[in-house]
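Hey all, quick one. A colleague (J.T.) asked me to put the manganese (II) ion job into the tracker so the inputs and the structure tokens live in one place instead of scattered across chat threads. No bug as far as I know, just bookkeeping. Sequence used:
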Amino acid sequence: MELLSIGAFARATRLSHKALRVYDERGILTPARVDPDSGYRFYRRDQLERARLIAWLRRLGMPLARIAEVCAKDPRDAADDVAAYWRGVQADTAARGDIASLLIEHLSRRDESMTATSITVRTAALADQGKVRESNQDAAYAGEQLLAVADGFGANPGERLASAVALEALASLDVEPGSGELLDALESIVSEAEAAVQAHAGTDRTGSGTTLTALLWSGNRVGLVHIGDCRVYVLHGGHLAQLTHDHTVVQSLVDEGKISQDEVASHPERSTLFKALTGAQESSAQPELRILDCDPGDRFLLCSDGLHTVVEAQAIRECLASSPSPEQAVRALVDLANEAGGPDNVVCAVADIANP
Ligand code: MN
């Protein structure tokens, strides 16, 4: 059989001599023959296909160890492997993108925060079992600087709830972070809550977990941490804006254009989460993190899906706009959810921003 010299093989595959030497050493592409005297490598013509696949996988950025695995598989399994690799790259890139936007927000507001006027925060929260469920796994924390809600799942009757466990772990973080410490404080909220949920789950409650959505004020800025399908809204100048994105399977289908917003309510996977704090030890949920300015007169709402799946945004806006105090607002919102059938637990937490 006619063998190709390394030069001819390199030209045909657009791989360098050096690359071919490395692939040989790593066992990914072994030459058909190595001349014992000169050390020259020779390749068979039918090795071109594998060499070209390796070249394309390198262009994709795949590490050599992973390329070795792909090359060892038949084409159908290799295709699945490439798809899985790419999903991982995309998830990783999205997580880095979030960190980049957070840093951009943080750095571009640094000068302003030095001279920022301070504000006061007044909070209230209310959790309710609703009309259908037999227990309440929704929980809230309403403190001086910190406001949080959590929608737990997977607890057996009588057990402590992952949602309550997560929020209890946050009580020690209810202090105003110093200038420049807000980002680290947001990170701590996630790590403390996740550690508490994992410790609580141990090895026999790994199916339990919770969502977590929290706001932490520092000066006139507020940091937002979000994992799951609770939501944050802000009423600013009479307009209601939703600040979070639901981490549900259906919402990602909407984002990808596969289903319409109108189909969400009737979708069987309406409440299936793709992000949560769970008891699984290896899990590490990438939270949504944001830093926002707030102004006196702003009213923030954190609520579980027990409210936003049954009460329209317009009704939420009217209720927030017409309730005199945070206490009255959370009571009125919980009543709205129950008047709409109360099919789920519901928790609402409200913060009013005012001049000192
Ligand atoms: Mn719920």
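Adding what we noticed when we looked at it: The first strand starts at residue 4 and ends at 5. The chain has a mean pLDDT of 90.
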